[in-house]
């Protein structure tokens, strides 16, 4: 049996992809909370000893450190015979959407959400630019999952697990109420949340959390200097 250790931080949707996949495959992992907010992944020491790419998550398999969620999800799918494609066409589709997710959906949404919710003074122009891009990607996803139950046909694959990750955090962080704005995505997320063993991100990824500025502003709006329009 493989012994897994997951280097993560709770707000990391990329970490959630692996934590959820392992959990749905009936595997346990040792959580290794990492001080991302404190900048540990930027240190030369961390990059020399944990991940030369400077990124979270890192998955250890029996002590071997591996990174990049897409190949890791595919590796786990092959190992446990779960959430992979059934034939060449499905495998091609899974890979196609994994690339799209990494480049577009997760790539922009993770950046936007982090800047919007977890930094003290986000740049309104940067937020507006990123939001326009994400709105486009969400409209693509809304159409796609509105026409089929899962990303690749009639059953969930690692493409779903990858694409759902950043959309599964509390809505106030990215500032989308998907039930209202994207009912097809909302229904697709509900189907995935119904998988046996599914858990929400912050339940699966415990430990000290980053300061969430949007949450604080929602509770007590600052009187003098208003937050950027996009973040209110
Ligand atoms: N494509 C990578 C993305 C990993 C990634 O961007 N992780 C974020 C945290 S969730 C990170 O470490 N970012 C650091 C940076 O961009 O400098 C994967 O799928 O593992």
Question: Could you list some keywords that capture this structure?
Answer:
alpha+beta, Glutaredoxin, Glutathione S-transferase Yfyf (Class Pi), Chain A, domain 2, 2 domains, 4-stranded mixed sheet, 11 helices, 4 strands, 52% helix, binds glutathione
Overview of the molecule:
This protein is of the alpha+beta class and 232 residues long. It has 2 domains: 79 residues, Glutaredoxin; 114 residues, Glutathione S-transferase Yfyf (Class Pi), Chain A, domain 2. 52% of the residues lie in helices and 8% in strands. It has 11 helices and 4 strands, in the order E-H-E-H-E-E-H-H-H-H-H-H-H-H-H. It is globular. The N and C termini lie far apart (48 Å).
Summarize the structure in short.
Strands 2-1-3-4 form a four-stranded mixed β-sheet, with helices on one face.
> SSE order in H/E notation?
EHEHEEHHHHHHHHH
Question: How do the strands line up in the largest sheet?
Answer: 2-1-3-4
Count of individual domains: 2
Instruction: Report Rg.
Output: 18 Å
Specify the overall morphology: globular
Going by helix content, strand content and strand pairing, the class is: alpha+beta
Determine and state the CATH class of the largest domain: Mainly Alpha
Under the CATH scheme, which architecture of the largest domain would be assigned?
A: Up-down Bundle
Sequence stretches where pLDDT stays below 50 over 5 or more residues = none
Bound molecules: glutathione
Structure annotation, total helices? 11
């Amino acid at each position: 049996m493989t012994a897994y250790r997951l280097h993560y931080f709770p707000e990391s949707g990329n970490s959630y992809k692996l934590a959820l996949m392992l959990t749905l495959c009936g595997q346990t992992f040792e959580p290794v909370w990492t001080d991302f907010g404190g900048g540990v992944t930027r240190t030369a020491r961390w990059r020399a000893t944990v991940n030369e790419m400077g990124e979270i998550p890192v998955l250890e398999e029996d002590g071997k450190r591996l990174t990049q969620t897409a190949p890791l999800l595919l590796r786990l799918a092959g190992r446990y015979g779960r959430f992979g494609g059934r034939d060449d066409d499905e495998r091609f589709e899974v890979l196609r959407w994994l690339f799209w997710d990494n480049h577009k959906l997760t790539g922009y949404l993770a950046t936007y959400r982090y800047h919007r919710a977890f930094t003290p003074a986000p740049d309104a122009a940067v937020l507006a630019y990123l939001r326009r891009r994400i709105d486009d990607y969400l409209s693509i996803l809304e159409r796609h999952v509105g026409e089929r139950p899962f990303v690749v046909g009639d059953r969930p694959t690692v493409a779903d697990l990858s694409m759902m990750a950043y959309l599964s955090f509390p809505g106030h962080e990215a500032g989308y109420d998907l039930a209202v704005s994207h009912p097809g995505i909302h229904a697709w997320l509900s189907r995935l949340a119904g998988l046996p063993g599914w858990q929400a991100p912050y339940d699966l990824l415990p430990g000290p959390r980053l300061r969430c500025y949007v949450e604080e502003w929602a509770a007590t709006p600052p009187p003098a200097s208003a937050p950027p329009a996009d973040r209110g």
